[in-house]
């Protein structure tokens, strides 16, 4: 029972995310890559915001204040003059949110999440049910944005971690 495989992958990604973030200086949270990629502060805030969405899908209460959701929700563009919370606060929000989602997902029954998720941006994709969406949020969504942070890190001149 539960989303065991997804939880294991999510836990792996969270460890990798910490390694990547260790090389991101506080003063660079708002800095984009040369090709206009999202800045690390927005990516981390977005992941924290999305962890709240995963928690809600799993029947848990969200953890973040509303302003975080307004600033970092899916589709919200990073403002050129945005101010981000400190890196440690962002990382704690990501780690805490995803760890709470993993805890909830380990005991959740995917069969109970078989109804449509209702998220229009995913219409026409294979992600059709709430179970599909929970799996996506714990794995591929987190991996995509972790990859963006890894790319940012490489653009800043750091050697590969893996």
Enumerate how many helices there are, as a single number. 6
The averaged pLDDT comes out at 95
- The percentage helix is 40-55%
The overall number of domains is 1
**Would you identify the CATH architecture?**
Up-down Bundle
How many whole angstroms does the radius of gyration measure?
16 Å
Protein described:
There is one protein chain. The protein has 162 residues and is an all-alpha fold. The protein has one domain (4-155): dinb family like domain (Four Helix Bundle (Hemerythrin (Met), subunit A), Up-down Bundle). The chain has six helices and no strands. Helix 1 runs parallel beside helix 6, helix 2 packs parallel to helix 4 (87-107) and helix 2 packs antiparallel against helix 5. The radius of gyration is 16 Å and the shape is globular.
Write a short abstract of this structure.
The protein is mainly α and 162 residues long.
Topology diagram in text:
Elements: H1 4-21, H2 40-57, H3 66-72, H4 87-107, H5 130-138, H6 140-155
Helix pairs in contact: 1-4, 1-6, 2-3, 2-4, 2-5, 2-6
Key terms:
162 residues; mainly alpha; Four Helix Bundle (Hemerythrin (Met), subunit A); globular
């Amino acid at each position: 029972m539960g989303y065991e495989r997804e939880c294991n992958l999510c836990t792996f990604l969270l460890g990798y995310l910490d390694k990547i973030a260790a090389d991101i200086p506080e003063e660079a949270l708002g800095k984009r890559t040369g090709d206009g990629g999202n800045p690390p502060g927005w990516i981390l805030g977005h992941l924290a915001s999305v962890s709240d969405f995963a928690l809600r899908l799993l029947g848990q209460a969200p953890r973040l204040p509303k302003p975080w959701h307004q600033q970092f929700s899916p589709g919200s563009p990073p403002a050129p003059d945005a101010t981000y919370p400190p890196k440690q606060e962002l990382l704690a929000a990501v780690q805490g949110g995803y760890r709470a989602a993993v805890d909830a997902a380990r005991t959740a029954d995917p069969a109970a999440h078989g109804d449509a998720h209702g998220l229009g941006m995913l219409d026409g994709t294979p992600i059709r049910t709430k179970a599909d969406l929970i799996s996506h949020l714990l794995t591929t969504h987190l991996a995509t944005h972790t990859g963006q942070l890894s790319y940012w890190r490489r653009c800043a001149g750091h050697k590969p971690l893996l």
